Amino acid sequence: MSGSATVSSPRTLADALDALVGATESTCILAGGTDLMVEFQTGRTRPDRVVDVWRVDELRGIRTEPAGLRIGALTTCAELRAAPLAREHADILVTAADEVGAEQIQTRATIGGNLGTASPAADLTPVLFALDAEVRLVSKVGARSLPVTEFLTGYRETAKRPDELIESILVPTRPPDERRGFRKVGTRRAQSISKVVVAVAVTIEDGVVRTLRASAGSVAERTILLPSLERELAGQAPDVGAIDRAASCSASEDCSPIDDVRSTARYRREVLRRILRTLLTELLLEAG
Fold it and tell me: Which residues pair with 27 in a beta bridge?
């Protein structure tokens, strides 16, 4: 971290928003710090101001409300794993939280931080996309809500203004018959950055796919939806052939992976195709 950066550690949301008045694009919000502290150490991020919100308890907590499940931005992966409400209303979010690093990381990594860093390899973000979640942003001038699909605008870029905080995430109430699945592929079996990560939410009525929403990470510059799956399968009675065609179409048309130190674009496309084929087979043909 630059020696010229000012650091504040507010204890209330009002104080945190006060600290962000006049913030610039170089201002950093420090939550769990699992990503940002590494960037400070390497010099990749050189902030002019750091607002440490870890002690702002108003940003914590999980609760139900008429529209769905409200999750405070400072809710950690460990807290998601332990929360009966999260397991009941957003089970694949709990599954994804269990894949975020080791236990030490999970006790610090937050859902707001996972979304706010806008990493294309984030584990929780594809789940939020698949569940059509919304992010609530707050500042001294008011609050606003955005679909997570609009919040992420590019590689490590978001629609958040410098003076705003991620206050919470809303997971809309799920259809009672919805089937959901999550998969992550990394270099190791556990505690690795994803090469491909996928989340799917689907409903079936009278043997026909009624709705299908899927998302993937590490296959484009940001987390993306996979619209080809819905186009190919919605309104159809699924079978093995249709699922295979839809998975191949999505891997070909929906993503734009790159070669990097963790994998190749060709590998990612093939893994995405196989994950989609497996997940859709489980959810559409094998689920009771």
Answer: 49
Within the chain, which residue ranges are assigned CATH 3.30.390.50?
Answer: 179-286
| Secondary structure string (H, E, C) spanning 97-142 | HCCCCCHHHHCCCEHHHHHHCCCCCCCCHHHHHHCCCEEEEEECCE
Q: List the CATH code of the domain at 6-52.
A: 3.30.43
Q: Are 141 and 107 in contact (CB under 8 A)?
A: no
CA distance 247 to 240: 11
Long-range contacts of 92-96, Cβ-Cβ distance < 8 Å, separation of 24 or more? 92/127, 92/130, 92/131, 92/180, 92/181, 92/182, 92/199, 92/201, 93/124, 93/127, 93/128, 93/131, 93/171, 95/182, 96/123, 96/124, 96/126, 96/127, 96/182, 96/184, 96/197, 96/199
> pLDDT confidence of 272, banded at 50, 70, 90?
very high
**CATH fold of the domain at 179-286:** Enolase-like; domain 1 (3.30.390)
3-class secondary structure per residue, 240-281: HHHHHHHHHHHHHHCCCCCCCCCCCHHHHHHHHHHHHHHHHH
The reported pLDDT for the residue numbered 40 is 63
pTM, rounded to two decimals: 0.93
Count of C-beta atoms within a 10 Å radius of residue 94: 20
The CATH number of 61-172 is: 3.30.465.10
